[in-house]
Amino acid sequence: MEYVVRALDVGYGNTKYVSGIVGSEIRCASFPSVAYPAVRDPTLNPAFERRRTVVIPIDNMFYEVGPDVDLAADSFRATQMHDRYIHTPDYMALVRGALAMMKLRSIDLLVVGLPVSLFAANKTALEKAMTGTHDLGGGKAVVVKKALAVAQPQGALADFVAQHDKGDSIESERSLIIDPGWRTFDWIVARGMRLVLNKSHSLNGGVFKMVRAVAEDISASIGMPYEDLDTIDNALRSGKNPMVFQKAYDLSNILPMLHTRAQRTVASMLSWFDGAYSFQNVILVGGGAHLFKKAVKQAFPQLRVLGIKDPLHSNVRGFQIAGMAYMQRQSSPQGTSRDGQQGPEGAP
User: For strand 201-203 and strand 247-248, is the pairing parallel, antiparallel, or unpaired?
Assistant: First the structure.
């Protein structure tokens, strides 16, 4: 029997999801984690222009989400960066937006992620919220039969194992997976595929604080508030100076300060575990990897810091891999996979 498995990861900066499986290729997509509310369905307005968004009804409100969500923007961009984010209608709108873009009517297993610091307290509640029938608007719905929540960097570990063909050796190895995101700087320590929870954590020291620091510097320079955080984020990723009042704004003076911030965040992480010499794998993933790469390498001068292809989607790709392995084990006698081998330990 073929099961339908899908994965999504609602981050504070981007919502990532698996859009399809073609052969052995896991195809991923993403859109900004921004949901714009309205009291009426904007698609019913005759003046509504078609764009790459979907409108999700929740509690008598309508939330527009998707790649072109900036076209729905007003002058105020709300941010939902707090520990109860997963309980907000904005979060559910992003989840259902990703489900709508998957274009499926039924999902046997949906794998979702949580920041490490929120994992233990919210795993059960999130799985319950994800299970059942989701109204996608326009008369469409999708049924999720089962949901599993995992710590976000665990997905990156599963993706790393698949990309580097380490299925046979990983069980004897100790790994550190570092995942800088928009709000949080997450990491996990793992033995094999098992999470060592008391050495894994999250800090509020992600990309947002870096971008905000640059915005404050630009504001002081131009004498007025500067709030275009997306432009700053893109500039830091590309290495190109942002355009402000039709001129390139020189970031060279503030980059050393950003590096110092990265060093302090990494130093805080180091206090959570001893014996870096015992790690066989130090893996850096996530949408903010480019801002922390130098600081991480300096923190582990005697170890090789490994990367992953397409680090932005690494977590959600790994969720998909782990979910498919889980369903394979469930469908095989006595919890073994179809080829008779024990499924990967620690998968959901």
Answer: unpaired
